[in-house]
Design a protein that fits this description.
InterPro entries: Cyclin-dep_Kinase_2_interact
Protein name: Cyclin-dependent kinase 2 interacting protein
Largest sheet: none
Helix content: over 70%
Low-confidence stretches: 1-10, 59-70
Number of helices: 5
Number of strands: 0
Radius of gyration: 22 Å
């Protein structure tokens, strides 16, 4: 069974080419969903910090402190269920794409030898390059999710205002993803290579 390698023609792609092109679109869409969740999480995390700060500045700990503690717990649960758990689901989808692409690479090595196919499926990238980029993206999101889980665990129990602001800033900034303009460039390169974006 032959695979069409005509870049940019949606209806003609089959097999490995179709899978890689679909994955490129999925990376883009999952990134957009992640960014939306990050914004939602930042809003909830800000509420947790504000509750902590108002609780600390309150001179009468009585009922207000108790109510604030309950509200912070509610916000933390909201942050877990509506943001972090959904991010974990996105990461799971990313991991499956990486595994599938590695499978394509192994299949090509079996069919065409160690160097893979002679001509690229799209413009210039070998299948191995798709796997490398997807793996880098996945590892970055994996590290970012681990950081967010730490922030989720620590933020509601942090009494120090400065440390709370560091956690909040770390959530918003996304050092493992945002800091690397290279990662965003690689996501864009996936779209260009597969014909989702014109060259």
């Amino acid at each position: 069974m032959s695979e069409s390698t005509t870049p940019g023609k949606n209806g003609n792609l089959t097999g490995s080419a179709r899978k890689l092109k679909d994955d490129a679109a999925d990376w883009h869409n999952l990134n957009l969903k992640w960014e939306q969740l990050n914004d939602e999480g930042s809003t909830i995390a800000t509420k947790i910090v504000n509750l902590g700060l108002s609780k600390k500045s309150d001179t009468e700990p009585g009922v207000v402190m108790e109510g604030g503690s309950l509200a912070a717990g509610d916000f933390s649960e909201n942050l877990k269920q509506n943001v972090v758990d959904k991010m974990a689901n996105i990461l799971s989808k990313m991991e499956k794409m990486v595994h599938a692409e590695r499978g394509i690479c192994e299949l090509e090595a079996f069919r065409f030898g160690e160097k893979g196919r002679a001509a690229p499926l799209f413009h210039t990238w070998s299948t191995h390059q798709f796997v490398e980029v997807s793996s880098k993206l996945y590892e970055s999101y994996k590290l970012e999710l681990a950081l967010k889980k730490t922030i989720l665990r620590e933020l509601p129990h942090t009494a120090n205002a400065d440390l709370s602001m560091v956690y909040l800033s770390s959530w918003l900034h996304q050092a493992y993803i945002e800091d690397s303009g290279k990662l965003l460039l690689e996501q864009e390169s996936l779209l260009l290579e597969t014909g989702h974006r014109p060259l």
